[in-house]
Specification:
Blueprint (H helix, E strand, L loop, with lengths): L14 E5 L8 E5 L5 E3 L5 H4 L9 E2 L4 E2 L20 E8 L6 H10 L1 H4 L6 H8 L15 H13 L15 H9 L11 E5 L11 E18 L27 E12 L2 H11 L3 H17 L17 H17 L10 E8 L4 E9 L17 H15 L64
Amino acid sequence: MHRGAECAKASHPILRMDDRGGNIGANVAIQCLSCEERRNIREAMGRRGEENLPRCRGRHPHLGTFDPRGCGKDPKVLVIGASNQWFPQTLSALAVPPSGASALDAKVEQHWKVLKGIPDKAMLAYLRENSESFPVFREFEKWSDEEIWNAIERRRQAPETGEEAGRGYPDLRTPEWEVFSSPHLPEPTDDFALHRGPVPDPLAGVYADVVQAERLREVRALVGFTRLDAPDPDDPDLVVRAPLARSAPTWVPASEVRGEGIFLRLPEDLLRDWEKRVQDSAALRAHEEAYARFRSNRYSDRIPGSFDPMDHWPGARYLALHTLSHLLIRTIALECGYSSASLAERIYAGTEDDPRNGILIYTAVPDAEGTLGGLVSLAEPEPLLRLTRRALDDARRCSSDPLCAERLPHPPADFLHGAACHVCLFVSETTCERGNRFLDRRFIVHIDEPELALFPDLP
């Protein structure tokens, strides 16, 4: 208003916004009631208007503090209520019991103050023999000295937690994958109960394992938020996270959701052979190039350092598993009694070094409806065969074809889906873990090129 100077008539002037209607800046003026100075807000809009704005002072309104290092960067003008004022950064995890190496690592972490001083593996035998003096080692009886020592070494090599370590996303999917894919399911508890069912003979080439999750508990936590730039679910360094507290928080807001689900594991050899067929295809290459454009277009120039547009590319396997998950969700919603918005997915695709092949479809509603058993019952042989056949058959056609079937992201388009639309594959934003991205029917069923299809023939 006063172009960086003080008001000539008042030490604490009162400002008034005069909005004459419309949604453009030229209709909004700011007036000082003390000196009657007047200025239109359009002088603060756009690239040219940013030159008239003061430098950022490093103020955090939600914390009531100023950054002592200062900021000095140019602020941005946003309309009140704009969708990019803030984006929550949330993490969700299933409350699964530890099993195998995870249980041992948890024990080592629990008793690290005692174990961190052990100089070598030979010392473990002595401590076992004198368990009366060292009662901690009674809890390690079912593990060998070699396993315990390896767990101690893993704990020593793990990075220490701190401010920088807190920026990254923890690995929450590995413990879940280990439990669901384990040949020996854990004992049922009030929060977690699994039952392995038979795979119908006609679906032997589609599923390698079927697990009914009769009870699940999902915990969702808010770990921070961002402004202007939406966070990437896999790349924490793509945007700047605003802290929730002045110091490292000891707790964060979280909620619990209880429900049920179905875990489906596909044959590894089926996925591996399919990946070899499509790795040099034009369709997959189009998806990879679109991903690079997508990341480049959304990269924040406020982030220092190098940027690789292909970082965190989920891979062809993820596209196949994710597309199959959406097909099943849309079909399941017609039979289990839940709307598709009440369902959620978790895709276990792993990496090139650690490939995985699982899909979890579960209820995600915060009330008792999520535990009524309507979803679990669909994992029985006869219903599972029926809904799988229906899902794959429906994927072969779309009422938006041929536009949908022929769609691929070509330059300069940066959307991350191929043969997919609201008619055939898209689901609610609360259901999909990747915002209806990485979807393509041609990678599941025969649409145009049969060699691209994971299942060229119906089971």
